[in-house]
Structures are given as C-alpha cells and as structure tokens.
Amino acid sequence: MERGAVVTTRSRIAGELERSRRRVHALTDCADEELLKQHSPLMSPLVWDLAHVGSQEELWLVRDVGGMEALRPEIDRLYDAFEHSRSARPSLPLLAPDESRAYLDEVRAKALDVLDRVPLEGSPLLRNGFAFGMIVQHEQQHAETMLATHQLRAGEPVLHAEPLDPAVLRTGVAALPREVHVPAGTFTMGSSVEPWALDNERPAHEVHVPGYWIDTVPVSNAAFAHFVEDGGYDRADRWSAAGWAHRREARLSAPRFWRREGGSWWRTRFGVVEPVPDDEPVQHVSYYEAEAYARWAGRRLPTEAEWEKAARWDPATGRSRRYPWGDEEPAARHANLGGAALRPAPVGSYPDGTSPLGVRQLMGDVWEWTSSGFHPYPGFCAFPYREYSQVFLGGDYKVLRGGSWATDAAACRGTFRNWDHPVRRQIFTGFRTARDGERD
Q1: Which residues of the chain does CATH 1.20.120 include?
Q2: pTM of the model
C-alpha cells in the first residue's frame, strides 16, 4: 500500500472510530438507573453493551494487533457474549456507568496509538485496516442493539429524533410499479474485494437465479393492516406449521408495539404513543408474520440470492455493484441510515438510492427477511474467529438483508448479511415480497 493511501486509510479509520464512539455515548447519555436496568430479558442492560464494546476493542486492537498488555483481564469473561446469556447479565458484577466510560476512554487511547504505528498491510487482519474496520462495525452494531433496548423500555422518552429531509423522501410513489422483474441469469454474489467485508460475505461466487418479480418498495403499514383486518392472524392456512404454532403460543395478533384503539391502529415508538403511519414500511414483525402475509397476498418472501441480485446486479454492465446506486459510499440522499430519525422513511422514498432495475429502499429503513437460512458460501473460511459467523451457521436462523434506519453505513452494504431466529420482533425488521415468473 502506498504512503498516501495508508495516510488516507488511517484518517478514515480514526474518523469512523470517533463517529461510532460518539453514537454509543449519545445512546447511553441517560440516568444510571436506565443503564443498569434490564428493560427486557431479550436484551442486555445498556451498561453491559457499553463496556462490551470497549472489551472487544481491547481484545482485538490493543492486545492482538497492538501486542500490549491487558488493561482489565479480570473482566474478560463478564463481557464475553458467549459466556453469559442476556437474561443473566444483570446479576453480574458489571462495571458501573462512569467506570465503563473511563474504561472505554483508556482503551480508545491505546487503540489510537496502535493505529498510528502498525502497518495496514501484510496479514489479513491488518490489510486495509480490517481489524479496525471489524471493531467499527461491531460498535455500530451494538449501537443498533442499544436502540432496540431503548424501544423496549417503558417510561418517558429519553431519545429525540432528527427530522428526515423532505427533499429525499417519497416522490411520485403512486406512479411506481408495484413490482419489478428480474430476468433469469447468473450474477456475482458476495465479495472477495470489499476491504471490510466479514467472513460470511466471502468469497464472491457466481449464482444462477431463475426469473422472478420483486416488490418495488417494502410492505407498508397500511398493507399489513389489511392483512390483520382480513383475519390474517386467525387463519392457519396462511401460516407455516412452525409459524402457526409460534403464533398461538406467543398469542400474536399484530406487529409488536401496535394496539387497536378507537377503531384505529396506534403504536409506541421510543416512549411516544402515536397513530401507525400508513405510508411507512411495517417493522417489528417476525419472519413467521412476514411469511404469513406473503402467503395471504399470493406471493412469497424472496430468497437471499434474489434480494442481492435485485440490489446489486446491473443489467447494463453485468457486474454487481457495492450498493444499489453504485459504488459510492452511502450519503443522506441514498438511504435512511444512522439512527437519527428513529423511524423508517415513507415507502417510495430515496429515488437516488434506486437499484438499476428500479427497486427502492433496499438499503436502510427496515431489515428485510428473506426465505433463506444462514449458510456458508462455497469456499467459506472462518475469520478472524469462529464465533463471528461459523457457530451460527445452520439451525433455524433466517437471513436479513439491507439494514434498517438504525443501522450505520459502516455496517451496511450490498453484501452484508444479518441473521436471527424467525421469532424475533424487537429488531427493526420488515420485508418485501416476490413471486416466480418471467416477464409477460
């Protein structure tokens, strides 16, 4: 790597580290009792997430890459995500909020010293600053997890949204086609060149996909409300066997945080009770709910390969782009990312983020369920540790794509793969539907 490129990469990494830390501090800038409390057994106390991001940074950047002595070896097990379940973490002797912040500051100072002196080339861990990029993505992912925890908390709002820019929102949505055709053929899925791509995104490989149709925009609240009001939660024939069993056991009757009152649907969003906006993508639905809606609509959920082809494949050049709009890093005009809005944008927004085939909002707003299980690509190699992806491969996990409004641009790209259990609803999940077929 040439000297100028190294300086640019170091500057970018330092900026991304600062940006992710600023976001984490903003999400934990509340009373200590809010940080120490477990707001749901599905989530860790916020104070655990706070110190956990510092612990991971110390393990990888300070100790592994930097070769320095451990700062707090006695807390390693406390903040090991595999050592203790989320429901058990409140009982641990966790660092207090102020102690956690001091620990993060100490770790960051050491990590920046490491960034100044280590080569950003050679081993895969150092090449293009991969280890630093992995930590940036990890911290941003925990910021999104913190937002999910904030959504589950009771009481008065402690977060305040920034308005979405009306200049990049919905433009002529009524004139958009309901669906877009994706022709049969082969495309390149995954990546072998994206510098900060994680192991489960690698390697790039060719995949043949039969022709299909996919929704131009995600399924809206209004559309999902039609499903609910048509008895969608009461008819077993709309659900898979596993989905129906879960619906009955969990007594599902609407998306999480919705309630019916006065003949209208209302929702709770970060402590604010408000009417459900018809034009936003539905969120906080499980895979099973998305699957049932698709059956009710006479359609299905797209496979992971179908989602990625719709998002990345350019029919004019035959190549796969980094993002739907091209190779340019995400900007405010492309997608609703970063978490500041505390909500999805209306369906049909962000025309500048449209894919070459005409599909909108494939990045940001809501994570989109696919029908695919979480499996390795051909030639997969666990890196830099098994626990990032390999231990999750298989099982009942379903792949989610595209990121949500709460996802940061550093942890979102056309190849990025998320996964979760099909029952999950606290995360910012929605979906779009698809159907088989060639163009008429």
Answers
A1: 3-152
A2: 0.95
